[in-house]
Amino acid sequence: MNEQEFEKMKNQRIWYPYAQMKHMKTPYHIVDANGVYLYTDDNKMIDSISSWWCMIHGYKNPEITDAIKAQAEKFSHVMLCNLSHDGAVEFAEKLADFLPGTLNHVFFSDSGSVSVEVALKIAMQYYINKKQRREKVLSLKNSYHGDTFKTMEVGDSSEYHFAFKQKTNVDHINTNIEELEDAFKNHGEEYYCMIVEPLLQGAGGMKMYDISFLKRARELCDEYGVLLIFDEVATGFGRTGNRFVSDLVLPDIVCLGKALTGGYIGHAATVASDKVYEAFYSDESGKALMHGPTFMGNALAMTAGIKSLEIFKRENCMKKISHIEEFSKKLLSGYKNPKIKEIRIMGGCIAVEANNPADLTGYQDFAYKNGIFARPFSNIMYAMVPYIITDTELTQVIETMKAWWNKQ
Ligand SMILES: *Cc1c(COP(=O)(O)O)cnc(C)c1O
């Protein structure tokens, strides 16, 4: 390294995610945000990916902002161990009401990865508490469940975690019913859980699959006594066109994150069914769940979550999402380019898979010049728009995607 490069390295203060810091392109510097728009000093762009899929009601929503302000006037945070507060009580109650089945017992945490860690820990201890020995997990190829160690292990994303290849107790299968049945036939009694991103695998490549796979998974989990975990960190709150995929097939544990607070404050939840909770509820203190993130149930996050949920219901977001889906399908119907492998649309997710990742090089800057913030990864160009987007704005997002291909 020459002196100049060393100086440059020394002066970097922020260690940015998923980036080779030596070559990282300078990030767009955001000075304001409102609705679907992000502002830099000299540009205004539609955030076509909702700040990593969480900002469902858009930026600077006055109701959420005011609710956070009002809570901050009381207290911003108190720990949730030996203490509780109205926000946590109310949000847990409302989430349990909003979720299907007996998904009633809410464990808060500060990020999606931790909510998945907690779900896996619960599933593993469920059998320990029942004095059964089960050591394997069934998971999907191309799955992404977070960046912490156990979530990397159940995930299957060489794009992200290539540095950590190791032998594990996890079987990864394709979303194919035959492979599913084989896995259960061979190891059904060894699994403590099956974990999936239901219907839509996000970070692993925006792959979409059919509900029949999940229906069969539910049957087999019941038959072999395996807990079914839905990681709905990305799919929850409408993204797939369902409120939750858990409305269609009921898991034993569901993980929520990203849109949980409308994107205003990082928070997540692991919600367990009565059956799962009951295995921990005991006179034996050794059966308790030993986990407790410092910021679980954070008061500002609870307030944001309650308000976001209220808006989600009142503004009939499900109807908006189904409109976004129909409108996107209309704009992309019959669209073809030799460099495009497939176009997939589900709910509020539009994915354009390229044959070659190199064909997306330069797309981010191209989009920026067209007033769109986009972040393609690998060979996937995609949009996960805020639900408040107008037809005109959505047209701009999709036309920018097409314009890129048209000039290829
Ligand atoms: C984003 C994501 C996570 C991780 O959430 P973080 O808040 O980034 O830790 C886990 N699972 C899925 C399906 C995700 O999309």
TrEMBL record:
GO-annotated biological processes: biotin biosynthetic process
Keywords from the named record: Aminotransferase, Biotin biosynthesis, Cytoplasm, Pyridoxal phosphate, S-adenosyl-L-methionine, Transferase
MF annotations from Gene Ontology: adenosylmethionine-8-amino-7-oxononanoate transaminase activity; dethiobiotin synthase activity; pyridoxal phosphate binding
Catalysed reactions, semicolon-separated: (8S)-8-amino-7-oxononanoate + S-adenosyl-L-methionine = S-adenosyl-4-methylsulfanyl-2-oxobutanoate + (7R,8S)-7,8-diammoniononanoate
Residues engaged in binding substrate: 52, 144, 258, 292, 375
Sites annotated Participates in the substrate recognition with KAPA and in a stacking interaction with the adenine ring of SAM: 18
Record PTM N6-(pyridoxal phosphate)lysine, positions in chain: 258
Compartments reported by the entry: Cytoplasm
Coiled-coil stretches: none
Cofactor(s) for this UniProt protein: pyridoxal 5'-phosphate
Taxonomic superkingdom: Bacteria
EC number: 2.6.1.62
NCBIfam families: bioA
Subunit and partners: Homodimer.
Membership in a protein family: Belongs to the class-III pyridoxal-phosphate-dependent aminotransferase family. BioA subfamily.
The protein's role, per its UniProt record: Catalyzes the transfer of the alpha-amino group from S-adenosyl-L-methionine (SAM) to 7-keto-8-aminopelargonic acid (KAPA) to form 7,8-diaminopelargonic acid (DAPA). It is the only aminotransferase known to utilize SAM as an amino donor.
Protein known as: Adenosylmethionine-8-amino-7-oxononanoate aminotransferase
Source species of the chain: Treponema berlinense
